[in-house]
Amino acid sequence: MARKDLLDIASLQREEIDLLLDQAVPFKELFTRSVKKVPALKGKSVLMLFYEPSTRTHSSFEVAAKRLSADVTNFDVPHSSVVKGESVRETIETLQAMRTDFIVVRHGRSGLPGMIARMTKASVINAGDGAHAHPTQGLLDAFTIKEVFPDLTGKRVLIIGDILHSRVARSTSTILKRLGVEVAYLGPGSLVPKCGPENTRRFTDYDEAMKWKPDVVYLLRVQMERQDVQYFPSLREYHRVYGITEERLKRLDGEGLWLMHPGPVNRGVELCDAAMDYSRSLINQQVENGIAVRMAVLYWLKPGGEE
Questions:
Q1: Cβ-proximal residues to 69 (8 Å cutoff; 6+ apart), any chain
Q2: Is 145:283 a contact under the CB 8 Å cutoff?
Q3: Residue 247, exposed/middle/buried by CB under 10 A (0-12, 13-18, 19+)?
Q4: Which pTM was predicted?
Q5: SS3 for 214?
Q6: pLDDT tens digits for 223-279?
Q7: Contact present, 75 and 104 (Cβ < 8 Å)
């Protein structure tokens, strides 16, 4: 199962998904040790190429690489020649001379990590491209849910929010369905595509969606920066209709449902403040698992390594 790059979930074989999720287990166990580093990528270099701002994904990849003993270089896009009009091709040609082993890319244009992968011998990992894909987020979400439900077959996950602009929704729903999970979308009609993936339920009413009996409720971040028009009256109205209010949180608690969010959370929009202390919240677990999964991905793609 040799592979040079990780660009999306759709191109992964089921065996590759299982391998990555299994490999993440010992890497997470490493966090409990006094020494949290292993020499798996000693002498290898990881270049962080983020054209979009990011805190969680960027720091998660950086920590993952350093715990594998790799050298990490951050390419400072705002202060690079990119702002002077340098093309992506020119940037990659410059970076190629650095002989980096991995390039972790985030870009607002869908498909750009794939283009970079064709231009370089380095292993390229897509850390989010436009509204297309965010494969490591999908993997860490699947890993997190498997910790609660080891057998995912027949489990139900309700993804709520801006499906239209969400690369997280695409990657996470794709991997969950490959693992036997039933997935449904809930959100404003303008933000839930009418022609969604096959076998994906579509709801626009919260109560109707809850009658579907999900096991996990997954709130997406409202991404105002990616919306060129206003898709709903106000953030307050969005919270009232689709967010987890204190009343809805009590219902989730009563029914024993698990709560997820990719972060960062817009408090008072997707989630009420009380939701951050909810006993079945998996949000902090997602952050921790993100490091373990990204360690597994880097190790899996390591040049010259065993696949």
A1: 37, 38, 39, 40, 41, 42
A2: no
A3: exposed
A4: 0.93
A5: coil
A6: 765 445 566 668 888 899 999 999 999 999 999 999 999 988 989 999 999 999 999
A7: no
